[in-house]
Amino acid sequence: MASSLRRLLAKIIKKGRLTVSGPAGSQVFGDGGGRTVAIRFIDTEAEEEIASDPQLKLAEVYMDGRLLFEEGDIYELLAIVKDNTLSEVLTPGMIWRGLLRIAGARIRHGVPINRNQRNVAHHYDLSAKLFNLFLDEDWQYSCGYFNPTGISLYEAQVAKKRHIAAKLLAEPGQKVLEIGSGWGGMAMYLAESSGVDVTGITLSQEQLRVSRDRARKRGLSDRVRFELQDYYYLSPGTKYDRIVSVGMFEHVGRLNFGRYFRKAFEVLDEDGVMVLHSIGQPYPARYNSPFIEKYIFPGGYIPSLAEVMPAVERSGLLVSDIEILPMHYAHTLRHWRERFLARREEAASIYDERFVRMWEFYLAGSEMAFTHENFFIFQMQLTRKRMTVPDNRDYIAEREERLKSFDATRPPLEPVTF
């Protein structure tokens, strides 16, 4: 008798070729055109578990080594499923699990407890050696800007920093706040390229240690400082000429959007400019991916622009520019996944094989969001006054050209030490 999973796959897979084998035998799904993937289950229970809760159990079965690939990989498996329609295959079990998750998300979002530091530590306080395996030389853990196409990961991350710096309109001597400063690369770039004084805030002890060490070695400690600081508690008495936030807004949480933008309004100078760089999705989500919530980014939430804009408007900030980057993160994630898998033995030595498979699933699933689910990056420029920035976008390209001269002569970055 066919398993519940195989009955589902028979309804789903019309395009491509998916071969499923295991203790229950072998079966082929699809018309044979397009992608070709072959998987093997170690035990019969694995198939039933996935059928009962594919959003979580597919990842867990793969993490536990109970799902093996004979052709293709986890990205190709996710892609062949997404290549086909899922509209006809919601089972009663999937529906009630979804309803429970919606209810759970509403309860969690309604409890006013600040878990920011705990949530950040879950991901960003992992060993720095792990991130060194797959990030570029500047440890940029956000979407690169692949303009022109075909450039390297490092070049794309330089282009991203250059693009954001141009939109900030930073001038020498200005005070810049970076909300979510990561491993310090953006702050150091702004200080060196634009002559500004930068304060970066983070909630990760590991990122704080690495970023402070990098700034010290680069001789920037007098112009670049990093603090263990929650944006919640920034003093409204301290004003900044510029604010930049890259890849942090996804951790704010849906109910905190208003708080976030009100705080930005409080600390941004009257003539200030803010640039927010974040992942967006095409419509509001009822709940987070259960795999991402449990294993990767607890408390995170990818917003839609429809959710962000009302919070911006209520804060008093004005939107002066929005740019959508639809596929750049897919390219970035592909680079990260390939680099990570090329050093999977080193990753396993830092943690274990289960962690390696979990991280591969995370990178593959994230890439899938951009290649198949219409996720995107938005860069939003915000001001307090209408005419703070020019009324055309020519200045962005002009400033980028000037910054290219700086990039060509910038001293090489020193390797991060552990």
From TrEMBL:
Keywords: Lipid metabolism, Methyltransferase, S-adenosyl-L-methionine, Transferase. It comes from the Bacteria. The keyword Manganese does not apply. Pfam families: CMAS (PF02353). InterPro entries: CFA/CMAS (IPR050723), CMAS (IPR003333), SAM-dependent_MTases_sf (IPR029063). Gene3D superfamilies: Vaccinia Virus protein VP39 (3.40.50.150). GO terms for biological process: methylation. GO terms for molecular function: methyltransferase activity. The keyword Lipid metabolism applies. Belongs to the CFA/CMAS family. This is Class I SAM-dependent methyltransferase. It comes from Pseudorhizobium halotolerans.
